[in-house]
Design a protein that fits this description.
This protein has 476 residues and is α+β, with helices and mostly antiparallel strands. Helix content is 21%, strand content 25%. Helix 6 (318-327) runs parallel beside helix 8 and helix 8 runs parallel beside helix 9. The radius of gyration is 21 Å and the shape is globular.
C-alpha cells in the first residue's frame, strides 16, 4: 500500500541504533573536509556539540530486559547545566531513503534546500511541559548543517501562535552539523503542549542540504520560506508539499509510569486516504480514544506508505527497521503489526523490477514469526492486525495488476494464520471491520478512498473504534 502521487519526506540520538556507514558514505564524508570547515565556520563550530547519551544496543541472553527497562531515561546538558528527565517519544515519523529516479512515482519535494527555512507541523499524542525534537540525516551522504531551529505551538496555514516560539539548542549551541547516517536530538526546551496538541518545528538550512532523508506520505503540509524565517510567526511561503524532511521524533518529559504503543505498518497505518492536515489516520483516531481515559500512554505511528515485510523500496523492509522503529523507543511495551499486503500485491506490477519473485504466503508468515520472536525477546506484546480487502485495487490505472485471485488467496491464507495460529498476543480483525459483507474481499464503498485498497476518514475511524482498548492495556 502506498501513495503513488506524493513525493518524499523525513533517531533520540540517544536511543535509536544508528546504521553502519557504507563505503560510499565514508568516502563522501572524508571528501567533504572543505565543506565541513566552511559549515563549521558558518555555524560557530557547533558540529562538535552533538550529544549521544545512549546507544540503544540490543541486550542478549541474561541481559535482556523489558522494552521500558532497556532504555534508560535520557539526559541532556544544555548551556552547561545538566537537565535530566524521563524522556518518552510522543510522536514519530519513520525515516525513508530517497527511492531514486528509476521508480515510477516521482518525488514531489525539492532535491535540496539552501538558505531556506522549512516549517513542519506534528500533532503529539500525550502532551507535556518540556519537549525535545529529533532530526535525522540517516540516509544523507553529506553532513547536514542546521543553522537554526525553533519549535512553537502551531497556528493555521503554517503560522505559529505568537509568543510561543522557542529556540532549540544542541549541547547548548544554536546550530549543529549532523553527520551522514546520524540522528540528533535537541536539548530540552520548556514549552507547554496540550494532549493531542500540534507543534510547528522550523529549520533553517544555510548550506546546500540534500533531501535524502524524508517521510513520503506525511498527510501534513510542509512549508518552505526563503532565508532564515525560523522564528517568524508567519512568512511568505514559496512552496508546500505533503511530506516530511529530516523531522523524525518528538519526546516529552513524562511521568515514570508512561509507556508507548507502536503501530508498525504500511500506508494504512501511515494514513494514505485520510484528509490532508486533519489528523484522521487510524493511529490519530486511536489516540483520541486513549488519551481522554487518562492512561499514561503515547501512541507512535511507525507506518511507511509502500512498506513491505520482506523487501525494501519505499522504506526498508520490516525486519530491517524493527529495531529502530519499535525496539529503540523508551517505554514501549506493545506493538501492533499490520503489514504484508504490499508483499502480496506489488509483484508483477509497475512497482517492482521485472522478474522480481513473488513471496509465498508462507514466506510472509515467516517474516511475522521473526518479528514476533524479536518482540517477545524484549518482553513486548505484539498484536497482529489482519490485512484489509483489496479486490480490484488500482483497477484501470497504471498499477493495475496489484490484485488478482491468486494474490487474494495469499491474503486469505495470511489472515487465517493471523487469526488462528496463536502466535500473536492478540488479534485486531481490521479485515472484517471494513469488508463489504455483501461482497467478500471488497472494501465497503463508504470506507473506500476510491482505489479499492485504502480507507478514507470514515474507514480509519471504524478501524480505530473497533479496537478493544483492553487489548492494549488501557482501562475504559
Amino acid at each position: 500500500m502506498f501513495n503513488a502521487t506524493l513525493g518524499r519526506s523525513a533517531a533520540l540520538s540517544t536511543v535509536r541504533p544508528c546504521r553502519a556507514l557504507t563505503f560510499v558514505t565514508i568516502a563522501a564524508l572524508f571528501g567533504m573536509q572543505p565543506f565541513l570547515a566552511a559549515a563549521q565556520e558558518a555555524t560557530t563550530g557547533s558540529g562538535n556539540q552533538a550529544t549521544n547519551p545512549e546507544t540503544g544496543v540490543e541486550a542478549t541472553g541474561a541481559d535482556q530486559t523489558t522494552g521500558a527497562e532497556q532504555q534508560e531515561p535520557i539526559s541532556a546538558e544544555a548551556g552547561g547545566g545538566a537537565r535530566t528527565g524521563n524522556w518518552i517519544d510522543t510522536w514519530t515519523a519513520s525515516p525513508q531513503q530517497d527511492w531514486g529516479d528509476d521508480f515510477f512515482a516521482a518525488a514531489g519535494i525539492p532535491r535540496s534546500l539552501r538558505d531556506q527555512t522549512i516549517r513542519q507541523v506534528a500533532r503529539v499524542s500525550q502532551g507535556g511541559d518540556r519537549i525535545r525534537i529529533e532530526f535525522s540525516n540517516e540516509y544523507g551522504e553529506h553532513p547536514l548543517v542546521i543553522g537554526e531551529a525553533h519549535v512553537a505551538l502551531a497556528g493555521e496555514d503554517g503560522a505559529i501562535e505568537t509568543g510561543s516560539s522557542r529556540a532549540l539548542t544542541f549541547g547548548g549551541e544554536p546550530s549543529i552539523v549532523v553527520p551522514p547516517g546520524a540522528p540528533v536530538w535537541s536539548d530540552p526546551v520548556d514549552l507547554a503542549v496540550e494532549d493531542l496538541g500540534s507543534v510547528a518545528v522550523s529549520l533553517y538550512l544555510p548550506e546546500v542540504a540534500p533531501t535524502t532523508t524524508w517521510h513520503n506520505d506525511a498527510r501534513q503540509t510542509a512549508y518552505i520560506g526563503a532565508g532564515n524565517v525560523a522564528d517568524d510567526d508567519a512568512f511568505e511561503v514559496t512552496q508546500t508539499f505533503p511530506s516530511r524532511i529530516w523531522l523524525s521524533g518528538i519526546a516529552i518529559d513524562a511521568s515514570p509510569e508512561t509507556r508507548s504503543i507502536v503501530l508498525f505498518g504500511d500506508s494504512i497505518t501511515d494514513g494514505d486516504g485520510s484528509t490532508l492536515d486533519a489528523d484522521n489516520r487510524y493511529p490519530d483516531q486511536l489516540a483520541e480514544r486513549i488519551i481522554p481515559t487518562g492512561a499514561e500512554v503515547t501512541i507512535l505511528n511507525e507506518g511507511i506508505s509502500g512498506a513491505r515485510v520482506l523487501r525494501d523500496r519505499m522504506g526498508e523492509n520490516a525486519l530491517a527497521r524493527f529495531d529502530r522503529d519499535v525496539l529503540s523507543h523508551p517505554g514501549v511495551d506493545t506493538v501492533v503489526l499490520m503489514m504484508g499486503i504490499n508483499d502480496i500485491g506489488w509483484p508483477d506490477s509497475a512497482l517492482v523490477p521485472e522478474g522480481e519473485p513473488a513471496p509465498t504466503a508462507e514466506q510472509v508468515i515467516q517474516g511475522y514469526q521473526q518479528l514476533i520472536d524479536r518482540a517477545h525477546a524484549h518482553d513486548l506484546r505484539i498484536i497482529g492486525a489482519t490485512l484489509t480487502p483489496f479486490n480490484n485495487a488500482f483497477e484501470g490505472g497504471p498499477l493495475e495488476g496489484y490484485y488478482n485471485e491468486e494474490k487474494e488467496a495469499k491474503r486469505q491464507a495470511v489472515n487465517e494464520w493471523i487469526r488462528t495460529s496463536g502466535a500473536f498476543d492478540g488479534v485486531i480483525d481490521f479485515d472484517k471491520v471494513v469488508e463489504d459483507p455483501q461482497n467478500p474481499g471488497r472494501i465497503q464503498a463508504q470506507f473506500d478512498k476510491g482505489d479499492h485498497l485504502h480507507p478514507n476518514d470514515a474507514g480509519y475511524e471504524a478501524m480505530a473504534q473497533s479496537i478493544d482498548l483492553g487489548l492494549l492495556g488501557v482501562s475504559q
